[in-house]
UniProtKB/TrEMBL annotation, chains A, B:
Belongs to the class-III pyridine nucleotide-disulfide oxidoreductase family. Gene3D superfamilies: FAD/NAD(P)-binding domain (3.50.50.60). Pfam families: Pyr_redox_2 (PF07992), Pyr_redox_dim (PF02852). This is NADPH-dependent 2,4-dienoyl-CoA reductase/sulfur reductase-like enzyme. GO terms for molecular function: oxidoreductase activity. SUPFAM superfamilies: FAD/NAD(P)-binding domain, FAD/NAD-linked reductases, dimerisation (C-terminal) domain.
């Protein structure tokens, strides 16, 4: 592939999960005498768990460094030439080179590559709001963000926190702030929290969060962030009300960070993420791979590309990219849309399509919802669990599952995740041989109860 | 089908999970004007959870009646003519009738049927040992057994208990006896406890049980149960030693109760269970169904019949039988061999084939074992989890998974249960979109870590 004789150079842009997994895996397959690996990261850290930040802020995870899976030194010890605080400012695809800038000094230089990995991640959505940059307003995407928020929380004069957004980050940050002893208000544009669930399931989350003492404000846009005489945040304003705030956390979500790729003319999808083939190669480019939060992924249920920024996918992408860039062969076939979360002891899980997703791609479906318990009803600690299941009309193919409950609700969704991957019908699912013992499940697992009801509805009896 | 005009009669032999589920489901489909349903049960109870008995004995479940899913009165209120304490003593298949005996009075009479359901369950293996019937020696299959054991435990003069057998019943009873404040010794014929696991995984259970203060004696046959001057048990003898015992619990397992079926010439398999077709009809008999602990089931991984007495299968069988006997259509495609259990906070799970099962059916395989954690390593409460995975040579098809760990180990096996059903390869499994968030899983779920290692071994790289 390469025009060079001898050693090739792999350049990685972005030193987090996808990029550094790719670098590590490529290094596993090819030694430094065959492959030079240079990784550019504009921040201070590599390979950290962004998903863990809410638990660090909340205090469950004691130290920032607990979230770092592999340090820069560990990467360098494996002959990866990692350059921190170095931002790639331009991709020259025709010239097979990138321009890198030292963030401290501003010095720029070009570096050529034989193989390129784009792992530029995501950037948080910052609302175009007056006051959004005021002291006391925080995002939670990076470790620096997390530290800044922790500092604010420690110094805050009052104990009132407002979270803007009620997706995964929003609900997890609500828990973290409760754990830090704050009174929490969540202001949410959607009809219910967790818009990745159907609203009827989101309502269960809403109720449970209110039960935890969180003030939930749904269906409301934030119009302004108000500051006091000291310039710090003092309240969040909506069209109808003002919510006093000593600290504001923005949990509105993220978008793919693809400005570089866009400028270089690389193919982007409808959600703004890079488009790749199954080997995670950027479409049309044999020697460029992309993965993690800057790419779109194929949803195997809808058959369409989707944007799913999630650490577990980023790690898989990195593994696949590193294998291919290292001369092996691997593919990432796609996702089924699994995600799990919790707010205190409430567990929330989803996989596959929501009602509106199914409609959008032309699928007609039956939807059922059942109530069951996490353990045999007579076993101590059995707690309620609600399972919603969607199945395609006529074929009965499973389309999606959403689960809200306490202990054991979240990971139960894995049953459906595998069933979606295997394209099982709900009728087939009724016969699944799932683990049963009274401490772990009723004799009919909640997922089986839902499958039975869905199967009856599909066959109309 | 029937020669009768008008209403047909369905006779059910055995009033536990399979039999009464079948009766209930048939009743749901056909009202009493179309279908008469008569159910014979030789015991005092119907539809109870035998799996729950250890937790009742241990005290976690307070009342016997908590284990009864549906009372005789509830069945009768749904027009099921339930006859307790009535034992069926003969099946006359040619004459389409059964002979029933009132256990109290000894009175016998014949009852004809149009459709018959055999759900005679299992009988516990009682060792042919001197002293096995002595007071203080208990089985734990029925509610009466459980009550008798609880009475013995309450009155016991000492606190030494010996459990014979270290399968599911044995380990669960060991926990129950610890919970009741007994010193527990488990005497086990096998090399390790839990012979449904490979010995290397059984060893982990052995160690954990010892860590709980249980004395484990493996590889040893009980030769005699010794009694004192009062005729009550005083010790359990093996070839090498005597273990003092104030109470002995036999947990050696069960065999299909098929004496009636055998006498009637119905087809039995190699394990002594009835053989059925996929609609749970006894092979060669259009109007006789059988289900629950008296039948053999097809193992979808090995392709051979297996004996798996488990409440969850019994309930599914009953559902399928009742649907078919009620004029509908349903099948039970088979099992993959999933089972979960726990001893205190140690969770044990298995599905598919062990190494010796695979060898027995001619499958060559690669086996891998990995260590991971239940949650992200940095998240509080993360506990170790060991996953063993077997994959077929060449095809890479998943053959089996065994998991031993703490929280979250047991139900994780469901991922593999669905994958086995769908005949996924371990390579396919590496891309499974499983739920990830730090409180629930490392970024690579332990099952994915095992699948990656197995896939590497299958492809030899």
């Amino acid at each position: 592939m390469s025009m060079h004789q001898g050693r090739e150079r792999l350049v990685v842009v972005g030193g987090d999960a996808a990029g550094m997994s790719a670098a590590s895996q490529a290094r596993r397959l090819k030694g430094p005498e065959e492959l030079e690996i240079v990784a550019f990261e504009r921040g201070h850290f590599t390979s950290f768990s962004a998903c863990g930040i809410p638990y660090w802020v909340g205090g469950a995870v004691p130290e920032r460094d607990d979230l770092i899976a592999r340090t820069p030194e560990e990467h360098r010890a494996r002959d990866i030439d990692l350059r921190l605080r170095t931002e790639v400012t331009e991709l020259d695809v025709a010239g097979r080179r990138v321009r890198a800038r030292d963030v401290e000094s501003g010095a720029e230089s070009w570096m050529s590559y034989d193989k390129l990995v784009i792992a530029t991640g995501a950037r948080p959505v910052r609302p175009e709001l007056p006051g959004a940059d005021a002291p006391g307003v925080h995002g939670v995407q990076t470790l620096d963000d997390g530290q800044a928020l922790i500092d604010t929380l420690s110094r805050a004069k009052g104990r009132r926190a407002v979270v803007v957004g009620a997706g995964y980050i929003g609900v997890e940050m609500a828990e973290a702030l409760i754990d830090r002893g704050f009174e929490v208000t969540v202001v949410n544009r959607g009809e219910q929290p967790m818009s990745t669930l159907d609203p009827d399931m989101g309502r269960l989350v809403h109720r449970a969060m209110e039960g935890l003492g969180i003030t939930m404000v749904n269906g409301t846009e934030v119009t302004k962030i108000l500051t006091g005489a000291d310039g710090r945040v003092r309240a969040v304003a909506t069209q109808h009300a003002e919510y006093p705030a000593d600290v504001v956390v923005l949990g509105i979500g993220v978008r793919p960070e693809t400005a570089l790729a866009r400028a270089a003319g690389l193919p982007l999808g409808a959600h703004g993420g890079l488009l790749t083939d199954l080997a995670m190669r950027v479409r049309g480019h044999q020697n460029i791979w992309a993965g993690g939060d800057c790419v779109e992924v194929l949803n195997l249920v809808s058959g369409q590309e989707q944007y799913v920024p999630l650490g577990t996918h980023a790690n898989k992408h990195g593994q696949v990219i590193g294998t291919n860039a290292g001369g092996g062969y691997a593919t990432f076939p796609g996702v089924v849309g699994t995600a799990v979360s919790k707010v205190c002891d409430l567990e929330i899980a989803r996989t596959g399509l929501r009602e509106k997703d199914a409609r959008r791609v032309g699928l007609e479906f039956e939807a059922v919802t059942i109530e069951s318990t996490s353990r045999a009803g007579y076993y101590p600690g059995a707690s309620p669990m609600t399972v919603k299941m969607l199945a395609e009309r006529r074929t009965g193919r499973l389309l999606g599952v959403q689960i809200v409950g306490r202990e054991g609700a979240a990971k139960r969704v894995d049953i459906a995740a595998v069933a979606l991957t295997a394209r099982l019908t709900v009728e087939q699912m009724t016969a699944l041989d799932l683990g049963y013992a009274p401490p772990f499940s009723p004799v009919w697992d909640p997922v089986l109860v839902a499958a039975r009801k869905a199967a009856r509805k599909v066959r109309g009896s």
